[in-house]
Design a protein that fits this description.
By secondary structure, the chain is an alpha/beta fold. It is built from 13 helices and nine strands. The strands form two sheets. A six-stranded parallel beta sheet has the order 3-2-1-4-5-6, sandwiched between helices. A three-stranded mixed beta sheet has the order 7-8-9. Helix 4 links the parallel strand 4 and strand 5. The longest helix has 29 residues. The model has no long low-confidence stretch (mean pLDDT 95).
């Protein structure tokens, strides 16, 4: 099998869009423990499902992972690093400290590792418009950038191992705070008798303008193709935001950084996660409307 093939491990909501865009330019070897992705992808001659991680490691020199947490990423990396001269691009969101450990593991086994988490959501994955935050030296960055450009629009070199994860957790902590603030404002407006779409249109050209207002609005009827249109059943799940917030708060404690609003966002998403773990983060708006 051609060594030009790229491996892709972890084909969930994000990975399915990423692998399909990558397959427009490369043969891709795919693996996920949940085999449902094979039917979801459909017939694609450039995507070959593989039975094991080892099969991918044997037949691809560049491998991308999109996995739930650092423990799973480490387990997969250990399997890949049984071989030499492999380049592992990890697009999962994990702790920057775990990323540094994975880099050390790669060096010890004569392999290459870069953290490269993403932002842009499921829509960005489908549309190849993701932002990649890369933690690598210039040589490795220049090597993997052409691969990432097949799946994303904005590729940033964060200049250090773990730098991509630092950027990602800071971004997502800000997003969590932002979504809560937007949901509170829209709920307040609704309770005072203002239409959410009108208020959103005003906010989108005013000083509160942000992604949660003009791109990922949590209120029904404001924007098309947002998770609220499917009762928050797609998108960025509360349980994933909670994971990211826990990573951010841990990093804040380690770096002696005061993040009062981040801590408050964590407590809010902990409560949401008790009953709405799989719902999109915008469900906070629905909860506020119902005064829960």
């Amino acid at each position: 099998m051609s060594k030009l093939a790229i491996g892709f491990i972890g084909i969930g909501n994000m990975g399915s869009g990423m692998i399909q865009n990558l397959s427009k330019h490369h043969q891709v070897l795919g693996f996920d423990l949940n085999k449902s992705w094979i039917n979801q992808i459909g017939s694609n001659p450039n995507i070959k499902p593989m039975e094991t991680i080892n099969d991918i490691a044997k037949n691809a020199d560049t491998i991308i992972t999109m996995l739930p947490n650092d423990k799973i990423v480490t387990k997969v990396a250990e399997e890949i690093f049984k071989y030499n001269n492999k380049t592992l691009i990890d697009s999962s969101t994990i702790s920057p400290f775990a990323a540094k450990d994975l880099f050390a593991l790669a060096q010890q086994s004569k392999n290459f590792y870069s953290d490269a988490p993403v932002s842009g959501g499921v829509g960005g994955a489908k549309n190849a418009s993701l932002t990649f935050m890369v933690g690598a030296d210039d040589v490795l960055y220049n090597k993997i950038k052409p691969v990432l450009e097949k799946m994303g629009k904005n590729i940033f070199n964060c200049g250090q191992v773990g730098g991509g994860q630092i950027a990602k957790i800071c971004n997502n902590m800000a997003l969590a705070i932002q979504m809560i603030s937007v949901a509170e404002a829209l709920a307040l407006g609704s309770h005072l008798g203002m239409d959410a779409k009108l208020l959103s249109n005003i906010m989108s050209v005013s000083s509160s303008r942000c992604w949660s207002v003009d791109t990922y609005n949590p209120a029904p009827g404001v924007l098309p193709n947002t998770p609220v249109q499917n009762d928050y059943n797609t998108g960025f799940a509360c349980e994933l935001m909670l994971k990211d917030l826990r990573i951010a708060i841990d990093a804040a404690k380690r770096s002696n950084t005061h993040v009062a609003h981040g801590q408050l966002a964590l407590s809010i998403y902990e409560k949401l996660n008790e009953t709405l773990a799989r719902k999109d983060i915008g469900v906070i708006y629905k909860q506020l409307l119902e005064r829960l």
